[in-house]
Amino acid sequence: MRQHFCDSEPSPQPLSRGERGSFVPPPLSLYIHIPWCVKKCPYCDFNSHGLRAAMPEREYVTALLADLDGDLADFGGATQGREICSVFFGGGTPSLFAPDSIAAILDGAAMRIPFARDCEITLEANPGTVEHGRFDGYQSAGVNRISFGVQSFDDEKLHALGRIHSSAEAEHAIKQAQDADCANINMDLMYALPRQTLEGALADVERAIALRPTHISHYQLTLEPGTPFAKRPPPLPDHDASWDMQEACQARLAEAGYAQYEVSAYAQSERRCRHNLNYWGFGDYLGIGAGAHGKVSGTDDIRRRWKIRSPRAYLQHADTPQRIGGDETITAEQLPFEFMLNTLRLNDGVPIADFAARTGLPLDAITAPLREAHARGWLIDDPDRLQATSLGRRFLNDLIEVFLPPRNPGRRHA
């Protein structure tokens, strides 16, 4: 991985409290991780665990709220006076939990920290785990957005991916949610699947469009380290074939009224995912649950925290400091990369003023990498905005690497 920096450039220094003036924290979200699933998929590197026995649902609800109590106490003033703008139940398979359990979590969380009146609350659902009538219950609990992990409408591809549902079950689950008046539905689709053709990828997109979800997440299957697919790779399309799939599917989604606003996110008008937009805008989020991650900005620093991954250990220690798997302050040297890693994923980018507001660093901390990115044609020529060009989006990883901190400040790497 190449490093880019100037020999004479000093390390960036965060702005002092006085220089930042009246610090206005970014929006605050809540991520809730439910780690169990019926069967772990061979491509998945999330903290998920296939069920081998009865799920400790009631105990986990209690643990989540104890975990939230601990975080609110630990972060202190950094969360006081703030409200939750979005909630996301991720996993694992959150739809394994009954509506009453989801309601208990949301009610308990709202008693501890206020929710915005228009708070977006998303629940991930596996089409193979949703029973009849549950969507009414989830809506009564407060859920107002459902995200279905469909991945494909080709039964052969679903089998290769280790999914537990069929294409017919996926369509049925989505129609059930629509019949229950769930007005905001996301559908996850993958492309570049084992032995997939361009025609097959487009057929999946057509089936998705026909169901008219409000949002489609369309992303490439990748081989993540430590997964069964990484150890025994299936036959996947090559880079050029994958790129052709991405471009063709992107064009078809746009034609159908789904505007791309992030690398893998497409939405109908006014239906962008607010929770993910907060991540990509370098906003704050509390993370509760086994393996959950969080980020909280204070007047003097920005902290990351993550929880222990083992569900059993988490249940044992959720009300103690031992629930914390790690806690760190993001250094001034790391902040430019951390900020760009998120914001440059957005097609529209962000106002350049957000850099100082969200990181506490002066803009001159990124003068050299900005100059390089502009010279390579990867950023638009706008002094008031950080936004990747079409070329920059094509080489997004290279663009983001420009903002990595130097490993050895005494040398310049080509």
Describe this structure as you would to a colleague.
This protein is of the alpha/beta class and 414 residues long. The protein folds into 2 domains: 105 residues, Orthogonal Bundle (Arc Repressor Mutant, subunit A); 256 residues, Aldolase class I (TIM Barrel), CATH 3.20.20. The protein contains 16 helices and 16 strands. The strands form 4 sheets. A 9-stranded mixed β-sheet has the order 9-10-8-7-6-5-4-1-11, sandwiched between helices. α2 runs parallel beside α3 and α7 packs parallel to α9. The longest helix has 19 residues. The N terminus and C terminus are likely disordered.
Kindly state the number of beta strands: 16
List the uncertain runs. 1-10, 15-21, 409-414
State which percent range the strand residues make up: 15-25%
Instruction: Please write the CATH class name of the largest domain.
Output: Alpha Beta
Shape: globular
Arithmetic mean pLDDT: 91
The CATH superfamily of the largest domain is: Aldolase class I
Q: What Rg do the Cα atoms give?
A: 22 Å
CATH topology of the largest domain: TIM Barrel
Tally of separate helices:
16
CATH architecture descriptor text of the largest domain: Alpha-Beta Barrel
Biggest pleated-sheet summary: 9 strands, mixed
Distance between the first and last residues' Cα: 11 Å
User: Order of strands across the biggest sheet?
Assistant: 9-10-8-7-6-5-4-1-11
Estimated structural class: alpha/beta
Question: How much helix, percentage-wise, in residues?
Answer: 25-40%
How many distinct folded domains? Answer: 2
